[in-house]
Structures are given as structure tokens and as C-alpha cells.
Amino acid sequence: MKLHDYAPLNTQTDEIRLLRIVQMGDVLEAEIQHFVIGDDCPEFGAVSYLWGTPQSNLTIKIGSTSLRVAPNAYAALSILAEYQFAFLLMDEIGCEDCEDWEQQPEWLWIDSICINQADIGERNHQVSMMRKIYGSAATVYSWLGNGSPRVFSAMRMLRDFTYKEFMHRQYEEDISYCRDDFDFDASELSDGLYELFSNPYWKRIWMVQEFIIGKWVVVLCGKMRISWDQIGMFFFNRFRQSKFEILHLRVATRLQSTPANPLIQCRNAMSVSKESLEIERPWAGHLLSHLTKVFEGWGSSDPRDKVYALIGLVGSGPEVDYAKSTGEVFDDTMKFYIEHSRFQAAYVVRLFAESLARSLRLGERKIRAISYLRDGVCVFPESPRGLVVGKNFVICPHGAHCFEWEAANMGDADSSEKEIGVGTIRRRQHVFRESRWTVEEELVVSSGDGLMDNLRLVLCQCV
């Protein structure tokens, strides 16, 4: 069968592809259509999952063509399709239990299928839209794989807890409903939840944005499902019944050591103030720095994703461009960080640069020059001969003014002034020294004409 050939997306709009499973069998059959996110776009679910092994003989049929799909993506689609068709069948025959099921959207967005991965321009466009895609999805499905009996048992207990808590709130006068007929095994729950929250899924960098941005998240493990609201009720101890509070104390402490914990805390914090995700703020650089450090150890097949997967949480960031090298992504990210941050001490800038370099797998890259300029243009050179360019002056740490720069910054006096090009540099404060760094100074820059007085510049030179 002929391989599927993607029709191009209109990258000048918010156009995306959506997938709908139309038939199950030995091979999944689906259709793909283009939609622009907005009023005319159908309700859809977005799938969040581990890519896993890319090589696969599994295919789905799209019209008269076929499309290769990785095993984990195929498993997620199969479970979602099975649930969807079961719901439709129960609804058709008028099954009373159908009313207790949540109908899921027919249309799905799954990145490995809905993005033409061979088209770099399209990848750039779609990745830059990830925040909008997952934020617009009616449901985000977090697929954790096939699971285990221990995980299934814990998920069932959580569902029972939250259901009984709901009934308790509805009928508080009949508290015996929840008090007399419910037994639980704290050890069994603790072991199952620890395994659930230690799943490799939680250590994938793209999952951070997908999980936190989603309006309604459903966790899928095999054929078991549970909403995030149910998990959150337990995790944040939103129970009114004392017996559940005691259970929470016995289990929750252990879960704080799992990789899911920082994600859960971030989602809870951001859900308190959704507006903070919608505005451009002067602290965007600080937020990106914090997220980069928190999730530095999270995995990705492409190191550039360690930046691109986080900018959706910030609301803005360096332009997504997979044609750029990791070194260029480093430079772009540092430039964004400095232009969107309040003034930082030099050592804070350095720590972020080193964390970012590790995330991008640049090794023990020595940062030749890091420039912090409150206004103007900053260049972060890989070459030691790079320039730092301002509006009315040029500083060249390793060029024509090298000796003057050293004289102005390495002298014995606490304060000195030296003319460099058209501007003046005066040492204000010595900030940090260690064996690797020859000098790290906080300076005040004056252009000589008063237009740039009192701008702060941090120059860090590493040998």
C-alpha cells in the first residue's frame, strides 16, 4: 500500500491536522483533515505520550494509503478508539450505564501523526503552536502505557475515594454512607501510586507543557482511566473526611520523591492564576530560567526540545527553528533571557548559562563572554572575539581594546575609569571569583552623551 503523503499546512494561520479513527480491526483505519483552531474547529483531544522506539512495522490506514506509527502511539490510539466505539455502542443500544461514561472527542491530535516530521518548516510552525494546541484541546490524554495490577488497584481506590467524597459532600447528613462500607490498604495504595508517578512518562520534557497547559487531563494506563481532578483531590488533600486525611498523610510524603511531583506542583500553581499564562511579562526570562533548572534532568531525543518544550509555559521565547544548531539555540535563549529579565547578579546569569548548556548537551562548554545589558543589543559569542554592541558604543573584550578593558577591570583600585571606544566603563562592584573565572564584574556604562547613563552591564570572561 502506498505511504501517506501529507498535504501541506497553511503555516500563515493556526491550521492543524486532526485524526479520527473510523474503524477498528487488524489495522486501525482513520481519516485526517485540516482545521484552523477557532470557532470552526471541532472539539478534539490531544494525546500526550512517550515516543519510545521510532522503528515500527505497525501502520494505520488513511484512505488508500498507510502511515507507519510507533508502538506506543499505536497503543494509545487503540485504547482511545476502543473506548470511543464502546461508548457509541452503549449509547446506541440505550445502556443505562452509558450515562456514567464521559464521551470523549472523536477528533484527536497526536504529534507524531499530525505533524509532517520530515518538513522542518512545518515542525517549526507546529511546535511554536503547542501551547495553543494543548490549551485548546477539550481533553489531554496522558498515556502511561499498559500499566500493572498494582497501578490498576491504586487507580481504582482513588476513583472510589473521590466518588465517596463527592457523595459525602452531597449528603453530609448521612455520613455513614462513607464511613461504614469502605476499607483500604494504605500500603497497596502507596506502592501503586509510587509506581504510577515514577513512570518514565513523567520524565519526558514535552510532557511538562502538555500536562500543565491542558484544561482537562485524563490519565490513561492500559484500559484504566482517571481524571486529574480525582488525582489532585488526593494529592492536595482536598478531603473533608478525617479518615481520608489520615490516609493522605501516610502516602503523600512518599510521592514527593517521584518525578511527577514537580509537574503536579507546577500544574497546581498555574491553575490558581491562569491569567499569568496569557500576558507578556518582564519576568519571562526568570520563569524560563527557573523551569530550565527544575527540568534540566528531563529527557528528550532532540536537545533543542529542552528549550522549545518550555517556552509555551512562559508565553514567549526564542523562535522555534530546528534548522539551528544547539549552539545557536543557546545564544538565542540567553539573548531572550537577558532581554526579558529584571537585573540579575552576574553569578545568577552564569548559573543559568551553565544549566542551559547542560540541557542542550553542550558539555562543559566554557562561556567566553556573557553580556547583560538592560537596553540595547546583546551578542553571546562562541568566539572569544565576539562583540558586545550597544546603541552608542562597542566593547570588544578580546579585540582592539583588550588591554584597555583589562586595565579598567583588573586594576587594584576599587573604582577606576577608562575610555574605551566612544564610551566609558567604570567598575562598580566586584561580584564573584573562583578558580575558573578570571573576572566577573558588575559595571556601569556611560555613552558619554548621557543617553545611556547608568545602564548595567555584566561581563564574564572564562579561561
UniProtKB/TrEMBL annotation:
Segments forming a coiled coil: none
Domain of life: Eukaryota
InterPro entries linked: HET, HetReg/Transcr_Mod
Domain Heterokaryon incompatibility: 45-210
UniProt name for this protein: Heterokaryon incompatibility domain-containing protein
Organism: Zalerion maritima
